[in-house]
């Protein structure tokens, strides 16, 4: 028994030293900053080869440079996830470079807030296009490389493959001024569950992460002036009167600063990335069709 325990301990130690995602290939959209950037750096640290995609190719390349400087492997792909040619271009480059695909992290997105009765069609359409249509099309394009027949055995080595779609508590509970965003983020929950049921027999897991308050440019003060350009139109990001992204928000620990969050603070992009890593890793090998709420206890 002692010899067996030592063998198991040695195997776990060796696996950990190589990283949770050793040799695996991951596409991460919206990976030039915020949660996506943290995710790309963390996945690379855990041994993954990372395809860093973002609307801003120069910023994506900076993330790739950072990964390579740390001894990792990554490539940058610039472009709009909603563009018709984007999915096939990313998949083709991934397969050409690395020969396989293990994970897709559909993280790219932004907010275009309006009260429901003042929301124009274009504000509705672009949010649905980026948050629902784009992930669907990227996953569909990856089908030939992920819907691969495997021998369904309880033990033995199987290729670790997963789809993780990023949602929000807004998609679970709704939010004032975000009818478009709420609808889109609710839709990806259904998308993940459907992928789980259709692709489970191919040993592909599909899960959703629903984030609460994470300190990114989407939750920073709108007065800071962060914008994103969509179809030639500048869309302001952030929350009116929100907390400063530059300072990481209020760090006083006062519960009044973050009402409704038992941990009395916002989450960091690194903490958000860690939850995505968990779902992608073998630690979650029997987790599929699940929506993981990462909220600091908010909403319980």
TrEMBL record:
Query: Species lineage, top-down?
Result: Eukaryota, Fungi, Dikarya, Basidiomycota, Agaricomycotina
Q: Does the keyword Oxidoreductase apply?
A: yes
Q: What is this protein called?
A: Ketoreductase domain-containing protein
Q: Which organism is it from?
A: Hermanssonia centrifuga
Protein's GO biological process: fatty acid biosynthetic process
The alphabetized UniProt keywords are: NADP, Oxidoreductase
**Listed transmembrane segments:** none
GO MF, one term, reads: oxidoreductase activity, acting on the CH-OH group of donors, NAD or NADP as acceptor
Entries under PROSITE patterns matching the protein = ADH_SHORT (PS00061)
The residue ranges of the Ketoreductase domain are: 24-202
Q: Which InterPro entries match?
A: KR_dom (IPR057326), NAD(P)-bd_dom_sf (IPR036291), Sc_DH/Rdtase_CS (IPR020904), SDR_fam (IPR002347)
Q: Which family does it belong to?
A: Belongs to the short-chain dehydrogenases/reductases (SDR) family.
């Amino acid at each position: 028994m002692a010899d067996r325990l030592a063998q198991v301990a040695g195997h776990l130690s060796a696996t950990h030293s190589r990283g949770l995602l050793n040799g695996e290939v991951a596409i991460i959209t919206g990976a030039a900053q915020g949660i996506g950037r943290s995710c790309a750096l963390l996945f690379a640290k855990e041994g993954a080869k990372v395809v860093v995609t973002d609307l801003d190719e120069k910023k994506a390349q900076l993330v790739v440079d950072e990964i390579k400087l740390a001894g990792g492997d990554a490539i940058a792909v610039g472009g709009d996830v909603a563009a018709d040619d984007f999915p096939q271009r990313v998949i083709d480059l991934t397969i050409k470079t690395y020969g396989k695909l293990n994970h897709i992290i559909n993280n790219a997105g932004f907010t275009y807030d309006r009260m429901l009765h003042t929301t124009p069609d274009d504000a509705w359409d672009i949010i649905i296009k980026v948050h629902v249509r784009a992930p669907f099309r990227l996953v569909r394009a990856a089908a030939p490389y992920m819907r691969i027949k495997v021998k369904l055995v309880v033990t033995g080595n199987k290729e670790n493959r997963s789809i993780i779609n990023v949602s929000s508590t807004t998609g679970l509970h709704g939010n004032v001024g975000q009818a478009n965003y709420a609808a889109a983020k609710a839709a990806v929950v259904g998308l993940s569950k459907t992928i789980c049921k259709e692709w489970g027999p191919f040993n592909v897991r599909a899960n959703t992460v629903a984030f609460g308050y994470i300190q990114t440019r989407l939750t920073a003060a709108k007065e800071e002036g962060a914008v994103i350009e969509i179809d030639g139109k500048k869309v302001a990001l952030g929350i009116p009167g929100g907390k400063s992204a530059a300072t990481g928000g209020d760090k006083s620990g006062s519960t009044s600063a973050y009402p409704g969050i038992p941990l009395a603070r916002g989450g960091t992009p690194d903490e958000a990335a860690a939850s995505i890593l968990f779902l992608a890793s073998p630690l979650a090998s029997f987790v599929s069709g699940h929506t993981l709420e990462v909220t600091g206890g908010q909403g319980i």
